[in-house]
From TrEMBL, chains A, B:
Name listed for the protein in its UniProt record: Arginine biosynthesis bifunctional protein ArgJ
Reactions catalysed: L-glutamate + acetyl-CoA = N-acetyl-L-glutamate + CoA + H(+); N(2)-acetyl-L-ornithine + L-glutamate = N-acetyl-L-glutamate + L-ornithine
Statement: the UniProt record of this protein carries the keyword Lipoprotein: no
Active site annotation, chain numbering: T197 (nucleophile)
Length: 409, 409
């Protein structure tokens, strides 16, 4: 199941950046499960990774190699991504396997192995099937291409329990030049990213200084992937990479930077929302907007407390305007000296709660009409400050239980 | 559904303490939904209440009345409890209704209204049906009795989505005297108590100083009701009351106190575990034991992070030894400078994880054999300190979704 439309866009070419996929049979036969992204020389690469303490072997190696590239003033040259196996909880063997994957791709492509970054997603705790994975690399390399089909196939080649590929693209005018930002992402369950989502790869031809690239990635992640949750579980393999080939317009002055920052945020937010629309078992796409908080942290705490409440999530699934559950979740959020008399809660255009109780004009019919929709906005105003946060989430359905109880994922 | 046996014990008499129930038709006809507990003069009453900021009207009034009693050096004389309606999120009207309930019972019983404490549980946000509730009070008063049947009927009269009544009792020898501790509790969903569980009433004939009574209640709650979670949702109506009639043995010296403290902990823990065994949709009873933490707070944080993980809970439901999900949940717990190389995870008697990955001797067969059980112990040793915590939880089943999506609770 999935909510609403998510069309994979016709991605424009980003000159010098090519993608290749293979069917390596890592977990299942006859599906794209191995992706190689080739990055031109002189590009800059920035990454945000999971903060899960049990981070996966490829996350450790990708961080190491990225640091080595930075130390030499170079960008990475290849990303290699497999689905079907997360190479997480695999100890020393997992690290060796991730390094061996980089080494083999480096040998085939004639580059230094530290310029190859590995990424894995899939089941935790099983060894990577190295023979099949390595055997797939030549096919992926031979298929390298910069066209829209290559982007779409790469989008498909990183999926796990996702029901559809997720891509987003914008082309921005900077003065008399244009720059493009393309991104692909995967993710459906174990989604409560902390620094980045499961896997997202965003590339642009814009030229950006490394420090600025890092800063732009962190800002955009903070208001996109770090604002979504399916099930509160932060993955061991989260990674979000931003690649700047530098072959397009140079982003220098404040006006250009504002346009670029805005475009990047759009691409990242669209990808993050696509993950939620395709959340495991999702039948609703829910926007939680918290306003009038003392700090953004406080607004996020309230939003995530509501977004993680199983009782709110099952009420959303049932299209039941059970506003008491929303109120109870808001009330248990970690807010100091919380005066609930000042709180208002709106469901779409309907006022649910004010002055600590049900709003006077509220009717069950009005609430139920909003809850029946596939896309629902819940707005919570705390009445104690000026700060806001928006979080996107899905509901908790029978399909969520079925997907996670019936299959080893 | 419910896990294991929970026999409602044959409660001994606690002299002077009587219980009466009525069928007031608050939400549904023909079920016990109104309970009155009469407390003898001279008794002491201590309470622990929810920390949900949207606390229910009866919680506010019970706190006020309890404070008024303390100020006069007296204990409360009556507790009045209704199920079927939580009187929460009901604003000013809710407070008036809770006060009117106390006033009417006080009038009928000939006591001061501030010596009556109100408690409610059930649906949030609907006004109390005051006419039916008040009409039920005389029946409950007429039925006041101190026998085992009265205790059992009171246990039944406070239930909501619970499938069975929950009671626990111990009789302790203090020197050549005995004291008794009886307790009843309710709770099945919206269970992640913070200070106390949904509703629990514990009474003893032991004589205890008020300050000591408060302290004993807080200690026992901290390691019983505050260590359970069904769905991470803290209720608006949580309350746990401890009544000491003072007609039995006086608890004075250290040896007696140790015996009493231990007995109270047993009763409270048994009640708390009974709530989990009867958790909404529960098919498993899971003990999460975290050892070798730097602080008890840290141990609790790890235990609750695992206990709240929907992916761990669905794996438990599926009897799937998906240890990667446990590892991922441990890894996202808020532990500073967390070295996962030192962590070990055991499932029952089977070592799952050590040195950051799957334990060498682990086999899927051994893990599956433990997961197939109804009662499962997961032990997580952090390898960084001396502190421990134990948390009890249930699994996430289709029935949980059905119960919360199909009915307005």
């Amino acid at each position: 199941m999935a909510v609403g439309e998510t069309r994979f866009p016709e991605m424009p070419v980003i000159e010098g950046l090519r993608l290749g996929t293979a069917m390596a049979g890592i977990k299942k036969p006859d599906r794209r499960d191995l992706v190689v992204i080739e990055i031109p020389e002189g590009a800059r690469v920035s990454g945000a990774f999971t903060r899960n303490a049990f981070c996966a072997a490829p996350v450790t190696v990708a961080r190491e190699h990225l640091a080595a590239c930075s130390a030499h003033g170079e960008g990475a040259r290849y990303l290699v991504i497999n689905t079907g196996n997360a190479n997480a909880g695999t100890g020393e063997t997992g690290l060796e396997d991730a390094r061996a994957t980089c080494a083999e791709l480096a040998r085939l492509a004639g580059v230094d192995e530290r310029s190859v970054l590995p990424f894995s997603t899939g089941v935790i705790g099983e060894p990577l099937p190295m023979e099949r994975l390595l055997a797939g690399l030549p096919t992926a390399l031979q298929g390298l291409d910069d066209g829209a089909t290559a982007w779409r196939e790469a989008g498909e080649g990183i999926l796990t329990t996702d029901t559809r590929a997720k891509g987003a693209s914008v082309t921005l005018a900077l003065g008399n030049q244009t720059v493009t930002i393309n991104g692909i992402a995967k993710g459906s369950g174990m989604i409560r990213p902390d620094m980045a989502t499961m896997l997202a790869f965003v590339a642009t031809d814009a030229a950006l200084e490394p420090v600025l690239l890092d800063q732009l990635l962190r800002e955009a992640v903070e208001r996109s992937f770090n604002c979504i949750t399916v099930d509160s579980d932060t993955s061991t393999n989260d990674a979000c990479m931003l690649i700047s080939t530098g072959r397009g317009a140079v982003v220098e002055d404040e006006a250009d930077l504002a346009i670029f920052r805005n475009g990047l945020q759009r691409v990242m937010t669209e990808l993050a929302q696509a993950v939620i629309r395709d959340g495991e078992g999702a039948t609703k796409f829910v926007t939680l907007q918290v306003d009038e908080a003392r700090s953004r942290r406080e607004a996020l705490d309230v939003a995530f407390t509501v977004a993680h409440s199983p009782l709110v999530k099952t009420a959303l699934y049932a299209s039941d305007a059970n506003w008491g559950r929303i109120l109870a979740a808001v009330g248990r959020a970690p807010v100091e000296a919380f005066d609930v008399e000042r709180v208002t809660i709106d469901l779409g255009e309907v006022r649910l709660v004010e002055r600590g109780g049900r709003a006077p004009g509220y009717t069950e019919e009005a609430g139920s009409a909003v809850m029946a929709r596939e896309e629902i906005v819940i707005r919570i105003a705390l009445g104690r400050g000026e700060q806001s946060a928006t979080v996107w989430t899905s509901d908790l359905s029978h399909d969520y239980v079925t997907i996670n109880a019936d299959y080893r994922s």
